[in-house]
Design brief:
By secondary structure, the protein is of the alpha/beta class. It contains four helices and eight strands; from the N terminus they run H-E-H-E-H-E-E-E-H-E-E-E. The chain has a four-stranded mixed beta sheet with strand order 1-4-3-2. Strands 5-8-7-6 form a four-stranded mixed beta sheet, with no helix packed on it. The relative contact order is 0.16.
Length: 169
């Protein structure tokens, strides 16, 4: 019995030490998305998806050039989150007034790179109703069942990024 408790204690200590040795300072990911129309995208993500705008910042053109971010643009970034908490992932939207150079996507496989995000929700019906109210096309049906009281909606943002929404009705 003492040997088992000692082994369990060692495993717990090892687990805590292993977690503390992660090379990441945050467990959330911040994702930047360049969009054609910043206000239109902010409206979509806040009024249809339900995200919250939690901040904004700018990076001057000279700093963008020095960091290798852009060749000739200042970046004005709006930060959105699913909830206003330090642990929440950031969805950073920015626009430099250019149009997309990739083909219009009808399916996730029509282009390479980041094509979709998945958001898990508490209830899918309110999002579906907001999408209809804002005339956002629901690509998946109304809503599609995944089983186990989980449903699926697929929409696209104004720039074509696919948004999967999964949750109970």
């Amino acid at each position: 019995m003492k040997k088992s408790l000692f082994t369990l204690a060692i495993l717990c200590i090892f687990s805590v030490v292993s977690m503390a040795q992660s090379e990441f300072s945050k467990s959330a990911i911040s994702i930047g998305l360049v969009v054609e129309d910043l206000q239109k995208s902010i409206d979509f993500y806040t009024n249809v998806i339900g995200m919250t705008k939690t901040g904004e910042f700018s990076v001057l053109k000279e700093k963008c050039q020095a960091l290798g971010l852009t060749d000739s643009y200042q970046l004005d970034v709006s930060v959105l989150k699913l909830e206003d908490s330090e642990q929440a992932s950031e969805w950073k939207l920015m626009s430099v007034g250019t149009t997309a150079k990739h083909p219009e996507q009808k399916f996730m496989t029509d282009d390479t790179g980041m094509q979709y995000i998945t958001i898990f929700v508490k209830h899918i019906i309110p999002i579906m109703e907001r999408a209809k109210k804002h005339q956002v096309k629901i690509l998946s049906g109304e809503p599609s069942t995944l089983g186990d009281n989980r449903y699926f909606l697929l929409v696209q943002d104004p720039d074509g990024t696919f948004i999967e929404l999964i949750g109970p009705k």
